[in-house]
Amino acid sequence: MSVFASLVERLAELLQPLFLTSATAAAIVLFTAFVRLAVHPLSRAAARGQKANARLAPQVAAVRKKHRNNPERQQRALMELYAKEKASPLSGCLPSLLQLPAFFLLYHLFSSTSIGGEPNALLDHRLFAAPLGERWTDALADGGVLGGAGAVYLGLFVLVAAVATFNYRRTKRQLAAAPAEAGTPPGMAAMTRMMPLLSFATLITVAVVPLAAALYIVTSTTWSAVERAVLYRDMPAAGALTNPL
Description:
Family: Belongs to the OXA1/ALB3/YidC family. Type 1 subfamily.
Protein name: Membrane protein insertase YidC
Oligomer: single chain
InterPro entries: YidC/ALB3/OXA1/COX18, YidC/Oxa/ALB_C, YidC_ALB_C
Strand order of the largest sheet: 1-2
Radius of gyration: 21 Å
Subcellular location: Cell membrane; Membrane
Subunit structure: Interacts with the Sec translocase complex via SecD. Specifically interacts with transmembrane segments of nascent integral membrane proteins during membrane integration.
C-alpha cells in the first residue's frame, strides 16, 4: 500500500502544474489508462476468441441438439470442440479479471485512514470540491445535490449515463443481429435480454464507492466502450456478450 500510495503521489506531483488541486484525481485517471493500456493486448486476444466463438455457434448448437438428453456427454463434446478449434467460451473474461486487483488496491487505498502507520494524506486530496476519499452520501450531506461536491458527482453520473446509453444501444443492435441458437440453455434468453441494461449498474457502483475508485470505474468504462466499438466493428454479434467493464 505504501508503494502504491507513493506512485499516486509521484504522478500527482508531475501533473500538478496542469491540474493544480485536482492533480491526484488526474493521476488516478492516468493510472487507469496505464492499466487499460497494459491489458489491451489481452482485450485484442479476447476479441479474436469471441469472434472464433461466434464462428463456432452453429457447431455448438448442433452439439447441444445432438446431446440434449445427456448433459455430461454434451459438456464433454463442447469442450472437445473448443479445444480442437483453440477457442474458449470464457475468452472475454480475462481482461476484466486482471483489472480487479488494480481496482481493489485503489479502493482500499482511499478507504484506509492510515498507511504504514502514518495518516493517509491522500484522503484530503480533491477533485474540485469533492474529497477523493468520500462517497456520494457525504457529498449530499455537505451541500446537497447541487453543492460543490454534489456537482462533481452529477458530472460523473452524466458521463456514466452517456456511456451506458451508448453501450445499451450498441448491445441491443448486436443482439438483434445475432442469430438465435437452437438448444439454448434454459434461462439464457432471459439473461441475454437483461444484458443491455448491465451498463447502467455502473451508476450504482459510482454512487457507493469512494470518489477515487469511482474515477477508476468511470475511466475504465469509457475506455471499454471505445475499445469494444473498435475491436468488434467487423463482428458485432461477438461483442454483444463481452463484459461492459
